[in-house]
Amino acid sequence: MKNIDDIAKLAGVSKSTVSRYLNNGSVSSQTKQKLDEIIQTYDYQPNQFAQSLRAHRTNMIGTIIPRMNSHAVDETVKGIKTICDKLNYRLLLNYTNLNTELEIDALETFYRSKMDGVIFMATDITPEHIEVINKVRVPVIIVGQSHKDLHCITYDDYQAGYLVGDLLGQKGYQHIKFFGVTESDSAVGIHRKNGLIAGLQKHGIQPSISITSFHYSEALIDVEKELQTHKHYDAIVGATDAIALAVHKYQSKHGISKHVVGFGGDPVTEIVSPPIQTVPYAFEHAGEVAMDMLDKMIQHQPVEKEIVIGIDQTFKK
Amino acid sequence: MKNIDDIAKLAGVSKSTVSRYLNNGSVSSQTKQKLDEIIQTYDYQPNQFAQSLRAHRTNMIGTIIPRMNSHAVDETVKGIKTICDKLNYRLLLNYTNLNTELEIDALETFYRSKMDGVIFMATDITPEHIEVINKVRVPVIIVGQSHKDLHCITYDDYQAGYLVGDLLGQKGYQHIKFFGVTESDSAVGIHRKNGLIAGLQKHGIQPSISITSFHYSEALIDVEKELQTHKHYDAIVGATDAIALAVHKYQSKHGISKHVVGFGGDPVTEIVSPPIQTVPYAFEHAGEVAMDMLDKMIQHQPVEKEIVIGIDQTFKK
């Protein structure tokens, strides 16, 4: 078992630099990388310093949420909160209304408020995000999107799309309409779409694809425009439950009841009649996994770079 | 114009006590009351100390939210956020899942994190809440409930209930079922219900009343039990939109389409078919009003004790 002196010698830095590193203080990225490696190699557990480390910690966690009235956000925060309660962290949320500038500001606010770590429910990760995440020097975990330079919890969106495509093919549908979203959201805009295309391709089907908005009311306008002029589809897929609900609204207004599929497991898909088929996502579980991972990072324990949450294949009804 | 010396003399306390008071520090409740009165009487504007006060401030606002996946919470936070952005405050949220213990803890966490003020979206205010609110010594505003000892933003729930009762009477409905909630939530459980009863009474109608839960899935069970055995109602009122949606679900499952009314203006009431009639609440406006009021309190300007947000009477369709 190595102690802090050994670590300092191995890294060729002073003991106080190691201590600063352990307390999430400022060290160069080169030193940080070196210390990361040494600590991982020797499986260094800084538990003997837990008491002193603790003094530097606030036991507060910040979470950045892009919107409020959302099943996905609600469930994810529930999961984060469960683990926070278990591990005696306080959870504070920062609501950014899908605005990049506010997200950057939220990261800085959490850093200044001395949060021990941050969970960021992201839709789009820009170079500006990366810059500030590197700057704030507290552990940050992204939920919902993948990024090569960041710790992430993601969903198997390709698989979710594939399952739906394969299922629709099996059921004998021929003319499929897909309402997707912008590719700047790579999870939903790219992976989910590509999975669907591949699942349908297995059955020799090529879907018609339009791009619409994440917002129900904006999607409703696009859906109306498209479905009023193209009536030959026998199944319609929304890239999200909100989009699927817009399709449902259009159909019930016009007395149509073609098969509609969404993604996310929003309970509203059950309230409407007929219910919409939706692929449930394990948002709450993802929140728990994210907070467990963040706690390990705060304690300088080794963690995975990315954890992919699987899709429950039994959803088919 | 009085200065801080005059205020101290008038109150019979030291200048440092006045300064402590102005900086939200600890002063006795007796002294606080005396200083409140003097400052209000002489319309004392501590602007000349703004700079020094500012140094003691973090420009951070805490908001306690009882749940996430809620139209009311979403809209209220939007309103709060708009004013925070305008006045250069940072907004942090604490999610308490309708748990009193977590609410108490949230108040203390915000106090320890040196928030300048707190907005509390409450459903039930217990003596424990009052105790901690008095203890934390930062301005706290309650949104959604009224309490004689606290600053509040409330809705005219009685009027909302009355409008619905009167409207149903005018439309000629005779047998009205009302699904209410516990009276421990006085806004919804008492005022909204009493308004409905009074509005119906004007037309000589007495509703049948059952108590159910705020949660859709729990309400669905109660609604099924009641409506399966009592089929003679010609209109059904839910104390909230979630309850009205449970009634809608029951009806669409059984091919029934009696008139359903809810409260809150949740957009889901528009997605379902047929749409549910709902009384819109100005949640976003209430959030703006609350944050404006909180800012005044932080600056020690006089504010109203309670502001009642009116109901838009044009909702009738």
Automatic annotation (TrEMBL), chains A, B:
SUPFAM superfamilies, per the entry: lambda repressor-like DNA-binding domains, Periplasmic binding protein-like I
Residues annotated as domain HTH cro/C1-type: 6-45
Record-linked CDD domains: HTH_LacI (cd01392), PBP1_TreR-like (cd01542)
GO MF term list: DNA-binding transcription factor activity; transcription cis-regulatory region binding
Keyword terms: DNA-binding, Transcription, Transcription regulation
Domain HTH lacI-type: 2-55
Source species, domain of life: Bacteria
Protein name per its UniProtKB record: Sucrose operon repressor
Species: Staphylococcus caeli
Name of the gene this protein is made from: ccpA_5
